[in-house]
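W.,

You were right to be curious about this one. When I first looked at the sequence I had no strong expectations either way, so I just let the prediction run and decided to look at it fresh. Below is the sequence, 103 residues in total, followed by the output.
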Amino acid sequence: MIDRVIAEVSVVPLGTSTPSVSKYVAACHEILKAAHDIRYQLTPMATVIEGPLDGVLETVRRMHEVPFEMGAMRVVTTLKIDDRRDKVITMESKVSAVEKHSH
């Protein structure tokens, strides 16, 4: 069994004193920096994570707690997982697979 997934996560605190969430995103990225066997890429709308399923789920759980630790009273976390068991996938391989069909 191949135990490597690609996930997209967005952690959004609600009811904060400002509409900006960049300080929360930066704090969540500290969790990613410390995570073992996890690769990630920040995008304008979410963060893409690559790693073993258990590691990704645990890392996202820890990221979900960050805004609460910073004083938020409500947090909405969205997680999308691509779990392919027939071959190893990476962030780069997924992009490359699309680009090879582009003219």
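Here's what jumped out at me. The longest strand covers residues 5-14. And, maybe more interesting for your project: The CA atoms of residues 92 and 98 lie 10 Å apart.

Coffee later to discuss?

I.
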